[in-house]
Amino acid sequence: MWEGQGPSHRPNPYNDMKLDILAFGVHPDDIELSCSGTLLKHIAAGKKVGLVDLTQGELGTRGTPDQRAEEARAALKKMGARVRVNLEFADGFFGHDRDHLLPIIEVIRHFRPEIVLANALEDRHPDHGRAARLVADAAFLAGLRKIETIWSESEASAPQAAWRPKAVFHYIQDYYIEPDFVVDITPFMPKKLELIKTFRSQFFDPHSTEPETPISGQDFLESVIGKNRTFGRPLGFEFAEGFTCAHPIGVKDLFDLLP
After folding, report:
1. Which of 69, 77, 128, 195 could form a disulfide with 123 if both were Cys (CB 3.0 to 4.6 A apart)?
2. Are the beta carbons of 35 and 53 closer than 8 angstroms?
3. Would the pLDDT of 187 be above 50?
């Protein structure tokens, strides 16, 4: 399922669809909860951003796949990202195998991002860690030219060239993980909260008659605010989002490390 900002929701495989950042989330709303402030900041700076949801979140206690898809479309529009893709893997039951790696490789090769953002490597929800490893491995494999993929979203056969992102960063989700780096999102925190609240089926709604969940209470949104304050405090940022990285992060000189 494709959602885009232009007149056609399905990208033309021959268009220049190169993106700067491609953010993956296993469930619709993972991206908004965990790294949307960072994405908003880079969009405001002129970077091209795309979003990929691996599943429709169909096992969620609240809401339906149709509701969540509508919410995801609304969040895409509010964020200003270029495109949103749902790969429609089975929520809770997707595997780390060829059938799940290849669609991710195909998407990465099409959009050719410099940076990939992915789920936390370890978290309360087992889908998060499994998706993190799946996306990271697909990002590496996308650079192997002997893996052949065809752009399946077009009627025309379009063999894809190999492409490997320069970096894969994992955003921090429910569990507290010591970040390898943080991004100052202070001016974008109000918009981040607006994006989260777009997923009305999942988060606090005093009029909802659906069962309560660990993320549906008003205190959950307060915990998101508190976590972003915690990440920002050591560097003097009011709000920040935290990320981890499996490899060392290099800079051109020491001054690139200054906040």
Report:
1. 128
2. no
3. yes
